[in-house]
Automatic annotation (TrEMBL):
<dbReference type="GO" id="GO:0008270">
    <property type="term" value="F:zinc ion binding"/>
</dbReference>
<dbReference type="Pfam" id="PF03477">
    <property type="entry name" value="ATP-cone"/>
</dbReference>
<dbReference type="GO" id="GO:0005524">
    <property type="term" value="F:ATP binding"/>
</dbReference>
<feature type="domain" description="ATP-cone">
    <location>
        <begin position="46"/>
        <end position="136"/>
    </location>
</feature>
<keyword id="KW-0547">Nucleotide-binding</keyword>
<keyword id="KW-0067">ATP-binding</keyword>
<comment type="function">
    <text>Negatively regulates transcription of bacterial ribonucleotide reductase nrd genes and operons by binding to NrdR-boxes.</text>
</comment>
<keyword id="KW-0479">Metal-binding</keyword>
<keyword id="KW-0804">Transcription</keyword>
<dbReference type="InterPro" id="IPR055173">
    <property type="entry name" value="NrdR-like_N"/>
</dbReference>
<keyword id="KW-0862">Zinc</keyword>
<dbReference type="GO" id="GO:0003677">
    <property type="term" value="F:DNA binding"/>
</dbReference>
<protein>
    <recommendedName>
        <fullName>Transcriptional repressor NrdR</fullName>
    </recommendedName>
</protein>
<keyword id="KW-0678">Repressor</keyword>
<dbReference type="InterPro" id="IPR005144">
    <property type="entry name" value="ATP-cone_dom"/>
</dbReference>
<keyword id="KW-0863">Zinc-finger</keyword>
<comment type="similarity">
    <text>Belongs to the NrdR family.</text>
</comment>
Amino acid sequence: MYCPFCRNPDSRVIDSRTSDDGLSIRRRRQCPKCGGRFTTMETASLTVIKRSGVAEPFSRDKVISGVRKACQGRPVTDVDLAVLAERVEEAIRQTGQSQIDANEIGLAILGPLRDLDEVAYLRFASVYQAFDSLEDFESAIVELRAAHAESEPRDVTE
């Protein structure tokens, strides 16, 4: 790590702390040459392998932009989309893999998006899972209705 003040290639770690989200480490450093102090943030890299074989860094912004199209005209805020992207990233990191297929990211998006807005979920799923017919939509709707039936509280009065 180069010192941002004198460009010395060495620095000493004075303090290390985990960030609030627990996904990065904040390190306070001091340059032994000029005495300047600076902070670095370290995060574990997450690489996405696209269908073409190209590797690129994971980006929450790309998740948000992909889902935003499905959410057009729906009551979904930018904060909702940011939380969804965070949930997706957390789910991917919990796999323990540093490289993940783009397809797995799409699968990780489906659950949180279904919880957020079912119409947006259907839109996203129709593109992501390449729905070819009305039957594909019907089966997805049947699954949503079944999930609703399971999650609704039951009246157990006798």
